[in-house]
């Protein structure tokens, strides 16, 4: 299994402070923490079973809240249970990633999103 462009970008910028932006207005700043393999918790013989790479992203600050409350990522952050959130193309991928200085590193390609 090969890294997709989102995972490559997060991996290559692992030590840097990044800004992740979602279509719903959510904007967070933080740092990639851990890259790992995950799956959608179905049995591996299920036709809908999917394996994918993900990155645990350590949230430092929420810059803007989502404009509508349909964000499992924001819901998780706002519980205060953990500052780590899972970032992947599989579920609720960000639309853009920037360096803290505003330089764009990555943009969601509709052909790549799952």
Brief rundown of the structure:
The protein has 114 residues and is mostly beta strands.
Structure, explained:
The chain is mostly beta strands. It is 14% helix and 38% strand. The model has no long low-confidence stretch (mean pLDDT 93).
- Percentage of residues in strands: 35-45%
- The SS-based structural class is mainly beta
How many individual helices?
2
> Helicity, in percent?
10-25%
Side-by-side strand order of the widest sheet:
4-3-2-1-5-6
How many strand segments? Answer: 6
Distance between the termini: 15 Å
Radius of gyration: 14 Å
What is the overall silhouette?
globular
Count of discrete structural domains: 1
Order of helices and strands: HEEEHEEE
Write down the overall mean pLDDT: 93
Features:
114 residues; mainly beta; six-stranded antiparallel β-sheet; 2 helices; 14% helix; globular
What is this structure's SSE topology?
Layout: H1 5-12, E1 18-21, E2 27-39, E3 51-64, H2 72-79, E4 84-87, E5 96-99, E6 104-107
Antiparallel strand pairs: 1-2, 1-5, 2-3, 3-4, 5-6
